[in-house]
Amino acid sequence: MPKLLQKPRVIARYQRDLLTKLLPACTTLQQAQRELSWIQKELPREQWEQACTQRGCNLMPLQYILGNQPFGSVNIKCRPGVLIPRNDTEEWCGELVDLFHGSDTFSVLDMCTGSGCIALYVATELSNVTVLGGDISQDCISLANENIDLNKDIIKGKISVDSMDLFQPLAGEKKFDVVVSNPPYIPTRELDKQEEVEESVRLYEPRLALEGDLPVFKALVTYHIIPSQCKIFMLEIGSREQGQYTRSLLNELWVVGLRLDSAFRPRNVIGFRTDIKSSIKRKVMSKITELL
Ligand SMILES: C[S@@+](CC[C@H](N)C(=O)[O-])C[C@H]1O[C@@H](n2cnc3c(N)ncnc32)[C@H](O)[C@@H]1O
């Protein structure tokens, strides 16, 4: 057979071999095809085979292999040691910035900033904001700083990151108008169960970013939300119980409720003080699905 006619078949076999390597990490053939197209788009040809092995045989998350993940209009550099930003988080960041388009200048604390994705989402969408991201992990602080640099051309507000421990009171009596956080909230009993947490997450993502429960929410309220004199907070949660517990820590000056995500799961506990402007009060209320 002439060589020219063999070529498409060789290419098809090569593609099929790469897909076969990827399949163990993917739930459907379509997902494997999608992941292969990203690998082939973003990595040089000589890395395709190794990338498919890392993903399919070693179950490494694709974002660590490609080295990045889009988050709104922000490009987030990803590497092991720092949590990969999730679509669930991106979804509520969109709702968060909706509240503040056209508002007065305000300040935000993003506690547990990780890659800096939430802080960067806010600072690239809004010019009237100063955001501080805090994290206990030096790997996170370094990567968040790299992500600020990577996105500097699209940042409209002010943004910085600093080392902070969520279980310590805020240093220097700092004040913030808004406190946001996607803290570690997976209880220890769930973290080691296969049916609760994907294997690739347990194998590669830092336990420090995942493991936590009610004490985390107590620390956020007592060391950050109350002392910063903030007026609004929005925290990611893993269960209704975490939202109800947060409500129990606040007095009647606060309206507190749950926000459900697009899959109708409780995804955030949102709170605002009753003395905020009624225009913003209405907007925040519109994000709350159920009052607590
Ligand atoms: C669920 S990750 C969120 C990362 C990022 N905000 C996001 O949404 O992708 C939780 C983060 O909390 C940080 N963390 C864990 N314990 C902490 C503590 N005691 N003080 C401050 N940050 C902490 C972890 O390093 C991790 O970056």
UniProtKB/TrEMBL annotation:
This is peptide chain release factor N(5)-glutamine methyltransferase. Signal peptide: none annotated. Pfam families: MTS. It catalyses: L-glutaminyl-[peptide chain release factor] + S-adenosyl-L-methionine = N(5)-methyl-L-glutaminyl-[peptide chain release factor] + S-adenosyl-L-homocysteine + H(+). InterPro entries: DNA_methylase_N6_adenine_CS (IPR002052), HemK-like (IPR004556), N5-glutamine_MTase (IPR050320), SAM-dependent_MTases_sf (IPR029063), Small_mtfrase_dom (IPR007848). SUPFAM superfamilies: S-adenosyl-L-methionine-dependent methyltransferases. It is an enzyme of class 2 (transferase). Keywords: Methyltransferase, S-adenosyl-L-methionine, Transferase. GO terms for biological process: methylation. Its EC number is 2.1.1.297.
